[in-house]
Amino acid sequence: MTAEDIESLIAAHLVCELCRVEGDGRHWYATVVSTAFEGLRPITRHQRVYAAMGSRMKTDEVHALSIKAFTPAEWAAQAA
């Protein structure tokens, strides 16, 4: 899998203002900004992103995915 493949999977399941994935082909780091995260706890946000990956996490197509999940307001505050 490529970073673009993972970004496409996430964006197909969540409306994202930003979806950026980086990694070395085995260990991936995703930053996802979505209004879908409004009012959700961090664990629930991560579960939504993992759900977008489907079975790819279980079959080891994606060995590790570290997630930073923000609402648009949280993302704007990070930039400030």
The tally of structural domains comes to 1
Biggest β-sheet strands, sense, barrel: 3 strands, mixed
Order of helices and strands: HEEHEH
Q: In terms of per-residue confidence, which ranges show pLDDT below 50 for 5 or more consecutive residues?
A: none
What order do the strands of the largest sheet run in, or round the barrel if closed?
1-2-3
Q: Categorize the overall geometry.
A: globular
Number of helical segments with 4 or more residues: 3
**Beta-strand residue fraction:** 25-35%
What can you see in these coordinates?
With 80 residues, the chain is α+β, with helices and mostly antiparallel strands. The protein has a single domain, classed as BolA-like (GMP Synthetase, Chain A, domain 3, 2-Layer Sandwich). Helix content is 39%, strand content 25%. Strands 1-2-3 form a three-stranded mixed sheet. The longest helix is centred in the middle third of the chain and has 12 residues. The protein starts with a helix and ends with a helix.
What's a quick, concise take on this entry?
The protein is built from 3 helices and 3 strands. The chain has 80 residues and is α+β, with helices and mostly antiparallel strands. The protein is globular and about 35 Å long.
